């Protein structure tokens, strides 16, 4: 799987409705669901809340998806990030060449936001096999 494959898969999620614990684009996705779909992996719903501060859960899900951890400063298109969105809440975002694909609970759908992450990046992972 290349970075372009990951980005294309993530972008196919744009417009899918937001659903907490969502893992299927037909019924809705949350941020972890978008990450799983973008790398074409099945991931069952986990037991976490919207206010999950214990971000080791996200690291555990990343490992289940076969992602390898990278230095957050090395993030590029096709990579996934865990960001600190505020007190007691973390969120995953998929990097594209021009922005971020993520499930936006406020907008109630998956969107692509231009630019870099606006929140501090806690961790980052790479799924693609290309290194260039």
Could you walk me through the main structural features you see in this protein, from its secondary elements to its overall organization?
The chain is an alpha+beta fold. It has a single domain, classed as endopeptidase fold (from Nostoc punctiforme) (Alpha-Beta Complex), CATH 3.90.1720. It is built from three helices and eight strands, in the order αββααββββββ. The chain has helices at 3-11, 31-38, 56-64, and strands at 23-24, 28-29, 68-70, 79-86, 89-95, 99-104, 109-114, 121-126. Strands 3-8-4-5-6-7 form a six-stranded antiparallel sheet. Strands 1-2 form a two-stranded antiparallel ribbon. β5 and β6 (99-104) form a beta hairpin. The chain is globular. The two termini are 13 Å apart. The model has no long low-confidence stretch (mean pLDDT 85).
Q: Spatial order of the strands in the main sheet?
A: 3-8-4-5-6-7
Query: C-alpha Rg, in Å?
Result: 13 Å
Sheet/helix structural class: alpha+beta
State the shape. globular
Cα separation of the termini: 13 Å
Low-confidence stretches: none
Q: Could you name the CATH topology?
A: endopeptidase fold (from Nostoc punctiforme)
What CATH architecture would you give? Alpha-Beta Complex
Estimate what percentage of residues fall within beta strands. Answer: 25-35%
Query: Can you give the helix content as a percent range?
Result: 10-25%
Give the topology, please.
Blueprint: H1 3-11, E1 23-24, E2 28-29, H2 31-38, H3 56-64, E3 68-70, E4 79-86, E5 89-95, E6 99-104, E7 109-114, E8 121-126
Antiparallel strand pairs: 1-2, 3-8, 4-5, 4-8, 5-6, 6-7
Helix pairs in contact: 1-2
